[in-house]
Amino acid sequence: MAMADVTVRGAGIFGLSIAWACVQRGAKVQVIDPNGAGAGSSGGLVGALAPHVPENWNPKKAFQLESLLMAEGFWQAVEQAGGISAGYGRTGRLQPIPDERALTLAHARTKSAKDVWQDHAIWEVIQASDAQDWAPPSATGYLIHDTLSGRMFPRQACEALVAALRAKGGQIQTEGADQGAVVHATGYKGLLSLSQTLDKPVGNGVKGQSLLLDFDARDLPQLYADSLHIIPHANGTTAIGSTSERTFDDPESTDLQLDEVHARAIKAMPQLAQAPVLERWAGVRPRAKSRAPMIGPWPDRPGHFIANGGFKIGFGMAPKVAAVMADLILEGIDHIPDGFRVEDNL
Questions:
Q1: How far is CA 313 from CA 154, 206, 287, 346, in A?
Q2: Is this model's pTM higher than 0.90 or not?
Q3: Which terminus of the chain, N or C, has fewer Cβ atoms within 10 Å?
Q4: Planar angle of CA 279, 232, 318, nearest 5 degrees
Q5: Which DSSP letter does residue 247 get?
Q6: Quick check: helix, strand or coil at residue 245?
Q7: How far is CA 211 from its chain centroid?
Q8: Residues sharing a CB contact under 8 Å with residue 319, sequence separation 6 or more, in sequence order
Q9: For the segment 293-311, what is each residue's pLDDT rounded down to a tens digit?
Q10: Which residue(s) pair with 94 in the sheet?
């Protein structure tokens, strides 16, 4: 391969997506990760592409909406290039409404969704009976149904991006020297390292545990109940997650907290009780200080850029993050929204 125009350090969802956006624009790209693609939190199971509530609109929510609407075309192009599916589907989401106050709020959000989502997606209140047997119990007898939420299989999505990049001449390797512009998309360890370098906290890691069941509900909506995501995948499995652990000793071990997640999922959806557990998974998600993705130039390091802090919404944000970073790196065009800049975390 000739001299790379862009070096991406980190082969998680942000690194691979940015590399893909750059390759699509004709750049020569190398991705370097000593642990391989999807080795960190991007190699997980859940894949809930779920929107923020449609109210108190701000740049972060607007950015996420654009990204979720870009997802279908983004993953379609990846699959066409590399021949591997990310398991993407905009299948929507159902959430039980627990009490009258929440029901009033849900109805109000129906109107605000029309204002901010416009005709791109629907947020509506439906009777629980309309969902037949694929919905958790609802004390009010009503559910929130939105048509913006999507799902994909994170690990499979990373594999799909690797295949697409290689098909377009991109290099994926475990080591190599910096060439061209350098993007640092190095996950929670990168946030900790950056905090040390800048001598101030810019972010940390939050551990999450999830599990995968042999339960086929592939064409049904994802569910959100008791703070759990229940995600039917296109391959006939169902993912359940996740915990949020600020303190942890082993970033990759599962424990009794995951057993409790499993029990809560079965309580919400008893039909999951007999489904065999295919995998228990744990990983650490990068959370930037601002809680939004942290993207843009690395302060005082010309030619170096940062893309980190995807936390729980990294896969949903990735298509738009990739486009914005490709604009910045290749064309010098800055479309970074307020709250996303590296400086916003300093």
A1: 12, 13, 10, 21
A2: yes
A3: N
A4: 90
A5: S
A6: strand
A7: 17
A8: 17, 67, 70, 71, 74
A9: 999 999 889 999 999 999 9
A10: 145, 223
